[in-house]
Amino acid sequence: LDSVPQRAAEMIAQSGGAEALCAHVLAVRDMDVVEQCVRCLRLLAPEEPGALLAAGALRAVLSFLDFFQQG
C-alpha cells in the first residue's frame, strides 16, 4: 500500500480485500499471516475507515489486542 497507486486502498476495499484480511485474522492459522493482515488493515484505516468497520476489522483486531506488542 505504501508503494502502489494512490487509489489502492479504495480498490482493495471495494474488491472485498478488507473482508478477506479480517477473515485471515479471525481464522488464526498462522500468526505471521495474522500480523501481516493487521499491518495491512492499519494501512487501510486512514483511507477507508468505513469499509473496515463494515468488514468487522474492529472486532478482528481487538480480539488480538493483548497478543500484539504495544508501542
Overview of this protein structure:
Helix 2 (17-27) packs antiparallel against helix 3 (31-44). By secondary structure, this protein is mainly alpha-helical. The chain contains 5 helices and no strands. Helix content is 63%, strand content 0%.
Q: pLDDT under 50 segments (min length 5)? A: none
Task: Give the DSSP E fraction (strand runs of 2 or more residues).
Answer: under 5%
Separation of the first and last Cα atoms? 22 Å
User: Quick one: overall form?
Assistant: globular
Q: How would you name the oligomeric state of the polypeptide chains in this document?
A: single chain
Give the biggest sheet: none
* H-E order: HHHHH
Radius of gyration: 12 Å
What count of helical segments does DSSP give? 5
Q: Tell me, rounded to a whole number, the average pLDDT.
A: 84
The class by helix and strand makeup works out as: mainly alpha
Give the strand tally: 0
Which range best describes the helical content: under 10%, 10-25%, 25-40%, 40-55%, 55-70% or over 70%? 55-70%
Outline:
The chain has 71 residues and is mainly α. The chain has helices at 8-14, 17-27, 31-44, 49-55, 57-62. 63% of the residues lie in helices and 0% in strands.
